[in-house]
Structures are given as C-alpha cells and as structure tokens.
Amino acid sequence: MKPKNQFGLLQLATLLAQSRLDFFAEGKFWRIRSIPLKNKLNLTLAGLDHVIRRTTTLSRPTGLMLEPADVCNLDCTGCWTNDSGHKHQNRYLSEAHFDKILKDLGDYLNIIWLWGWGEPFLNPNIYSMIRKAREKNIVVISSTNANIHWDEDALEALVQSGLSKLIV
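Request: output the structure for the sequence above.
Response:
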C-alpha cells in the first residue's frame, strides 16, 4: 500500500473513532473536532471518491472558495477588476446568498476560503459571514491587501468573527 493511502486510512480511522479531522491547508495544519455524523459520512465518501478516482463524486464539497466582493480599492495594472472591459456594477456576495450556501452545504464543509479578485473586507457583511461559518465549525481563511480603513469597531468585529486565518 502506498504511504499516501496509509495516511488516508489513518485519517479515516481517526475521523470515525475520534470525530477529529487533521488536514493541511494554506501552509498550516488544521484540526477540526466534534465532527457531526453527516460530515463524517461525507468525508468518507470524499475519501472513497479520491481512492477510486471517480469522475462523478459520491460526496458533497468539503471545501469551498467564495468571492465576497468583486470590487477592489486598489488600481493594480493588469487586474481585471479595474479593466475598462469589466463593465458591471460592483457586486458583493449577499448575506442571504451566503446563508443559502451554508444551509445547503454547511453540514459538509470543513473549510471556506473567502477571497477572489476583489478585496473581501469591502463587503459590509463579511464579519457576519465569517461568524456564521465558524459557528458551524468550518475553518475560514481570508485574504486582504490591508489597504482599507479598519477603525476600532471593524477590528473588533474581525476578532469577534472568529476568522481562522488572515493572509495579508
């Protein structure tokens, strides 16, 4: 048996016996404890999908990347958010849409990345979204260019949101 598969079997045994998942993402090891049965079953299916290399998965997503804002406060050369051909209103992921995503997939997700081309912290609902995901025991990682004004209230909201990791 390949070492990679041995690690996968060890992870599966730990997941089922101890309701714990250890994984590596964004340069850090993460440990999620108290994993609900529905999530355990989904992770087992995801592992099976990976081992037998299924092209149509049995599992639901275990991780999700969402773009909270497709607008940026910088004017970087070559960035499509500032391209003259990018002709649409600045858009933000609505809290209602985020809530629907959590309702549909939240029981299966272990990690959410909140970033894309835009500056995530321009979305006025970002702190609430992070908090809601963290309440479901989902690791939340976001990124920022750190060129926005964070007053004390915003900084407090960031800390209180429970954000797992901030990449600057």
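The helical segments are 3-18, 37-51, 95-105, 126-135, 152-161.
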